[in-house]
Amino acid sequence: MTMKPQSEFPLLEEYKKHFKIDENTIFAYNHIIYTNKELPEDILLHEQQHFIQQDRDGLDYWVQNYLNDPKYRLRQELDAYRKQLASCKPKGFRRAVMLDCIDNLTSGMYGDLITRQEAYRLLS
Predict the structure, then answer these.
(1) In 93-122, which positions are buried (b, 16+ CB within 10 angstroms) versus exposed (e)?
(2) What is the pLDDT of residues 11-36, one digit of tens each?
(3) pLDDT tens digits, 102-123
(4) What is the 3-state secondary structure (H, E, C) of the chain?
(5) Which of 33, 13, 11, 37 is nearest to 23 (CA)?
(6) N or C: the chain end with fewer CB closer than 10 Å?
(7) Using CA of residue 28, residue 34, residue 36, residue 40, what is the dihedral sign?
């Protein structure tokens, strides 16, 4: 799996127009993960799910819809977070990851897509 620094993400400026991006934001694009840190296995699985989505839908279609269609973006993220959560076996660890997933889904990182209650219901 190829990993590069976030600064090398070719669509960084375009994504900044749509989302609140910081140094911890991770991008999965065209089978490369752009990140500034080492990633645990559950997050790697999340990002790999985005590669599967991009291959299935076509990279350009995926990017355009991810950026411009909140419902599409939510479906992609829910799919990836469910994959991530399924990999978390110890109950305490899974709960901690679930809370992080909820925090992410309800943040500006994805454009404030849903409420905490909706995120909990959709991920449970």
Answers:
(1) ebeebbeebbeebbeebbeebbeeeebbeb
(2) 999 999 999 999 999 999 999 999 99
(3) 999 999 888 888 999 999 999 9
(4) CEEECHHHCCCHHHHHCCCCCCCCCCEEECCEEECCCCCCHHHHHHHHHHHHHHHHHCHHHHHHHHHHCHHHHHHHHHHHHHHHHHCCCCHHHHHHHHHHHHHHHCCHHHCCCCCHHHHHHHHC
(5) 37
(6) C
(7) positive
> 82 to each of 61, 85, 110, how far by Cα in Å?
22, 5, 16
Using alpha carbons only, give the angle 84, 25, 62 rounded to the nearest 5 degrees.
70
